[in-house]
Design brief:
Structural class: mainly alpha
Order of helices and strands: HHHHEEH
Shape: globular
Strand content: under 5%
Oligomer: single chain
Number of helices: 5
Length: 196
């Protein structure tokens, strides 16, 4: 697991209450990695995850709701730890054999990367990731309405919002009423559910 305290992370709180943690026993890293602003988590000896190699369990169609690392990825994502969510889901992707679940994990990995690019105002990177995500989602939606607790139409909507710049990012943090929250087993929450 990744250890640390969310209290030591500055300026990542949005202006609405975040959902309850899915895996509260796993701690957040002491900082969220933004390229160029902090030590690289795994390549730098000062990084928050340096030297921590973990073997992820594969994701399965019936076991997603008890897969701690899969669920922890959503805690990371929802709290703005996009690089860490990406790495977390990538480990699971490597261990998973079901092709549709691998595709879903690729979508989540790329969505986290797209949010990191959007936070850094790298519009071309956001557009490239959104195009890949949209293509993968189209294939999955032909076979599934939801997968591993996620509504695929809701993921498509979030990707479209991000691509169309309808999700607002501050200069150093995400501060917006329309920031989506991913909670497996529930509909994705977007601006329609936010307080005004």
């Amino acid at each position: 697991s990744i250890s640390g305290s969310p209290d030591s992370v500055e300026e990542i709180r949005p202006n609405w209450p975040l959902p309850a943690r899915l895996v509260p026993r796993l701690s957040f890293p002491p900082y969220r990695y933004i390229p160029g602003q902090a030590p690289h988590p795994t390549a730098n000896p000062d990084g928050h995850s340096f030297g921590r190699g973990e073997h992820a369990k594969p994701l399965t169609l019936t076991g997603w709701n008890s897969h701690e690392n899969y669920l922890f990825g959503f805690d990371l994502f929802n709290h703005g730890y996009w690089w860490e969510a990406h790495e977390n889901w990538e480990g699971i992707w490597h261990a998973t054999t079901d092709e549709d679940l691998r595709t879903l994990l690729q979508i989540l990995i790329q969505l986290a990367a797209a949010f990191l690019k959007a936070h850094s105002h790298q519009e071309r990177g956001v557009a490239a990731f959104c195009a890949r995500i949209t293509g993968r989602l189209a294939g999955l939606r032909a076979r599934h309405e939801s997968l591993a607790g996620l509504n695929l139409d809701a993921l498509t909507s979030i990707t479209k919002q991000l691509f169309e710049h309808r999700i607002q990012f501050g200069s150093s943090a995400f501060i917006a009423n329309n920031f989506p929250v991913l909670i497996p087993g529930h509909e994705a929450k977007d601006e329609a559910s936010r307080p005004s």
